[in-house]
Amino acid sequence: MLEIRGEHFYLNGEKFQIRAGAIHYFRTLPEYWEDRLRKLKLAGFNTVETYVCWNLHEPQQGVFDFSGMLDIERFLNTAQQLGLYAIVRPSPYICAEWDFGGLPAWLLREPELHVRCAEEPYLSCVADFYRELLPRLAAHQLDRGGNILMMQVENEYGSFGNDKEYLRALERMMRENGITVPLFTSDGPDDGMLTGGTLPELLKVVNFGSRTGEAFEKLREFDPGKPLMCGEFWNGWFDHWGEQHHTQKVENVEAELKTFLELHASFSFYMFHGGTNFGFTAGANHDSGYEPTVTSYDDDALLTEWGDYTPKYHAVRRMLHEAAGLVPEPLPDSPALQNIGSVRLTQSASLLEQAERIGELHKAVSPRTMEQLGQNSGMILYRTRLAGAYRSNTLFIDGLHDRAHVFLDGRLLGVIYRNDSSPSVQLPPVPRQGATLEILVEAMGRVNYGPRLIDRKGITGCVRLGNQQFSHWEICTMPLNNLEKLQFTDGISAQKPAVLRGTFAASSQADCFVHPDGFTKGIVFVNGFNLGRYWNIGPQKSLYLPGVLLKEENEILVLELDGTESDTVTITDRHELG
């Protein structure tokens, strides 16, 4: 067992410094877990740290999935076989720039439900998940022959609330489900955060990216005489759409690591290997406005999104080995990459015309959100018939989450974004025989941090022409997980949004990158796997295509929302981020 004795950790009776790096099993395909973990070990780290994503493990209430990319036990076993210990941060909330901070979307069905607090309906849902998750993790603890050193209670809770009864309920659930290793809380090095997010009896760690000495001084005020540990050392940062790509200078990372080593403090690099927000898993922030996170979670980490070495990796590796007085072992070669070239998209299908082919139809008097209709992600189509004459007027969508294409009798009137100062479009005159109004809404990631965490998708308010609200809607939920049901025709449709289809050959399973140059905004699927979103506002310009997804003959689908003049994407060995 890992023991806490005074200001030090002890393992097997010896002083132990935790040198951890974060790798999220759910952001990297299982075929690459061993490679990434081996590179963590060879860099001089002794521990891997990972969150647990409740939303993917329980996509529908009472339906659990621990297979494939979600097989956390396989991930832990792989780490242990390589000689790595593990720290697990098992939800319910993880932030992580992940949709809804890892909380499942179905929690949002009930309008009165409050999350991250001691209210019984929420705690009951957490308890149900913990009964499935925690016994799996308990089997991998050190005292049972596994490699888990410690586990976290909640995550940066002082940045959200101060409900000590809630934190104690989580601690109690963990113990009742067989967790025996030391528990800890992690918060920012701030009076308010450490006051709200901690429990007196639990070890406290702090998260930061600079000014290590100051951060630890604050930690000592709240947890005197205990080991110093940085639970998340932010050696890089994530990106939002429309921003510049974030980087952290190597010399800055070296300076902070030098302080960790001088103080004999434990640490966890966040991230060691970031991976990818595949599919619709990326979250969002909401400060002055809505800020969705890009598909890449490269995070300027020590390993790139595809597992290659960076100057930061080599610098940290050198420092850790010098501090331990060890000679580094040889490193594996960099990952193989391939250049497939141009891929022409030769067929298309109108998303609007075939919505019901890939969606489920519902009827409601007023608009309903995705969550109310059992949908977690994707797109949702609202349709109503405007009977009788209307003069031209402004059509408002109150509570748009997040981006909408508005059509009248199939003609695109405009695109509305959640951040628009007045989410609206001009509706032309409607003749007396009436017209069909359709609103196609794209969900772009739920807020994962801060007071706006409750972020339902679709239309959360009403649709009105001036002051008159429109009623009686047909609503089609489209999670976009069954595009094989579309009927494609030859040629590229001029109608937008449209799904464009092409095929290409691959001679190997080396990694590569899809470049939708000339395209505007959309989603790319290869052999049925959702690679994630692209958007020409950057900073991300290409999508990572893991080579293990490839076959001799491959299908690529591009859901282009805003229109493109190109019918060709390129697949190369070059990644563009920033």
Care to describe what's here?
It is a single chain. The chain is an alpha+beta fold. About 20% of the residues lie in helices and about 30% in strands. The chain is built from ten helices and 34 strands. Strands 14, 27, 28, 29, 30, 31, 32, 33 and 34 form a nine-stranded antiparallel β-sheet that branches. The protein has an eight-stranded parallel barrel with strand order 4-5-6-7-8-9-10-11, surrounded by four helices. It has a six-stranded antiparallel β-sheet with strand order 15-26-16-22-19-20. A hairpin with a 2-residue loop joins β30 (about 520-525) and β31. α4 packs parallel to α5 (about 165-175) and α8 packs parallel to α9. The protein starts with a strand and ends in a 6-residue tail after the last strand. The mean pLDDT is about 95.
Q: Separation of termini? A: 44 Å
Total count of helical runs of at least 4 residues: 10
Q: Structural class of the helices, strands and pairings?
A: alpha+beta
Q: Please state the CA-atom Rg, rounded to the nearest Å.
A: 25 Å
Fraction of residues in H or I helices: 10-25%
Shape: globular
User: How many strands, what sense, and barrel or not for the largest sheet?
Assistant: 9 strands, antiparallel
Mean pLDDT: 97
